[in-house]
Specification:
Blueprint lengths: L1 H20 L9 H13 L3 H14 L4 H13 L3 H14 L4 H13 L3 H14 L16 H9 L1
Helix pairs in contact: 1-3, 2-3, 2-4, 3-4, 4-5, 4-6, 5-6, 6-7
Length: about 150
């Protein structure tokens, strides 16, 4: 994990050096510039570059829930599941009524084996938007009912 973090820092540093050299003194890249480039890099499956773009977008505007969601998606692709969960948590702090944040966090919780947490997030996404059909994936989650019953009896 240390090497992955060092690679992310090096990628961001190299990106910043390139970004600074391509803008004029009076021209400051804005949130929208970084955010849109992050989306484009994500679509191209260039996840390290997308991560750097979303990092810079969030530095410019830390109150933009979608930037956290998409950075969480990038971290999910890079298998940084705890980082992805942290970004989805931030998106939820910014907008607790955003079903996409709960759904995406539920997907990652499922990957890390927290099936009950995933079910809770899918349920919350559906409560917020009853037509959110993607969140109905919760029916595919299997939980250890016998183990749960033992815990409840203790």
């Amino acid at each position: 994990m240390v090497n992955a973090n060092k690679t992310q820092v090096d990628t961001k540093k190299n990106y910043l050096e390139t970004e600074v050299s391509t803008t004029t003194e009076n021209e400051q890249p804005e949130f929208k510039d970084f955010y849109e480039r992050g989306l484009a890099k994500y679509e191209q499956q260039n996840y390290q570059s997308a991560l750097a773009e979303f990092d810079l977008a969030i530095e410019r505007d830390p109150s933009h829930a979608d930037a956290y969601i998409y950075r969480g998606d990038v971290k999910d692709k890079l298998e940084d599941y705890q980082g992805a969960i942290a970004d989805y948590n931030e998106a939820i702090k910014i907008n607790s009524t955003y079903p996409k944040a709960y759904y995406r966090r539920g997907n990652v919780l499922r990957k890390v084996g927290d099936n009950w947490g995933a079910i809770a997030d899918y349920n919350q996404a559906i409560r917020l938007n009853p037509n959110y059909t993607s969140a109905k994936h919760r029916s595919h989650i299997h939980v250890d009912v016998e183990g749960t019953e033992k815990l409840l009896q203790e």
